[in-house]
Design brief:
alpha/beta; 43% helix
Length: 363
């Protein structure tokens, strides 16, 4: 199978990692893979290190007339008659839509779009044209799909699919073991340091747990102004001595294994929540909010704990429940790991994506 990914970003983030992991899996599955980017070293180096073939195009906006012609020429030059083009935003989908008529009937070209965001669909004539060119629109959660469809956008419902997101696990972390509780109990927040992540709520929740032997590790990077604000909040709540600020951590799974409980207190609606399944993959109970796609991932009280966002008292109660009950922690950790393997592991994810590719080429 010949697969082409368009990756326009100038920065590295979750969407780019999604594309890289998928490229690696596709190459391992003996497919021919090409990535078209804007030639940004920060992005390209990740793919080049993995041996992925790279091509450079402008990948500009609506006035980019060069990329559709270059893309059409590239596809016409390929030996394969059937080509999957996988993009990760609608701007790149528009480039493919404009390239398709230039390719002609010499190739079977199928356009796949992964929708990573929780945003309503558009309804203008321009968007109708883009949607007509899309052969499969894959959402990373049912929430993302529902929000997109809430405006009744002009797209054939038969083109829509949901494939829950996933992560690749380094070999040394594949066989996690559920654990009891350390003394002190180690809580972990890992992720971007920004207001929508609810770290301020977590710090306030810690103030209601002064009687328990707890330590909170906050691992991640963010703007200095906001980080300083969180330092002050910790001081004001009398919990600064109970918090360890690790900054950006390269080995996420190592620090997860050092912890007892993972906390993901997002106050915004997450389109999926990779940090949640990272904790689950390492058999750690996860406390998270219920305002995004997290209820699609976690069964409350069984594979994790769900709470309403923005309420420190509820978060304190959930932490206390786990931090004082080693058996409950062990049981939820075991069920979380089992659920991850059955529903969210990368082989499960890749099989679903591959089946979407195959079904398109056979239609």
């Amino acid at each position: 199978m010949r697969i082409i990914h368009l990756v326009r970003s100038k920065n590295w983030g979750g969407g780019e990692q999604y594309a890289l992991d998928l490229c690696r899996a596709s190459v391992k599955d003996e497919n021919k893979v090409t990535v078209i980017s804007r030639g940004i070293p920060l992005v390209d180096n990740h793919f080049q290190i993995s041996g992925i073939e790279m091509k450079k195009m402008p990948l500009g906006g609506i006035l980019d007339f060069v990329s559709p012609f270059k893309l059409a020429r590239l596809i016409r030059s390929l030996e394969e008659k059937e080509v999957i083009i996988h993009v990760h935003n609608f701007k790149d989908a528009e480039i493919v839509a404009r390239a398709k008529p230039l390719i002609g009937n010499s190739k079977i070209v199928k356009l796949v779009v992964t929708r990573h965001l929780v945003i309503r669909g558009k309804r203008s004539a321009r968007w109708k044209s883009i949607f007509n060119a899309i052969d499969r629109l894959i959402f990373v959660s049912e929430l993302a799909k529902r929000e997109f469809l809430s405006t009744n956008p002009p797209i054939d419902g038969g083109k829509l699919a949901v494939v829950h997101n996933s992560i690749t696990i380094p070999g040394q972390y594949e066989n996690a073991q559920p654990c009891g509780l350390q003394t002190p109990v180690i809580l972990l927040y890992i992720g971007r340091i920004s207001p929508e992540k609810g770290i301020d709520v977590l710090i306030q929740a810690m103030s209601g747990l002064a009687d328990l032997p707890l330590k909170l590790i906050i691992a991640g990077a963010g703007p200095k102004e906001y980080t300083d604000r969180l330092y002050r909040l910790a001081e004001e709540n009398g919990v600064r001595e109970k918090i360890e600020w690790r900054g950006f951590v390269e080995d996420r799974f190592k620090i997860i294994r050092e912890s007892d409980i993972c906390v993901v207190p997002s106050t915004t609606r997450e389109s999926f929540g990779l940090t949640v399944i990272e904790g689950m993959s390492q058999a750690r109970p996860v406390i998270t909010t219920d305002n995004g796609a997290q209820p699609e991932i976690i069964r409350d009280g069984t594979t994790g704990i769900l709470i309403r966002p923005g309420e420190p008292e509820l978060l304190s109660t959930a932490i206390r429940k786990l931090a004082t009950d080693p058996d409950l922690c062990l049981r939820i950790g075991e069920e979380a790991m089992k659920s991850f393997k059955e529903r969210f592991s990368y082989p499960v994810f890749y099989r679903k994506i591959k089946n979407n590719y195959i079904s398109l080429l056979q239609s």
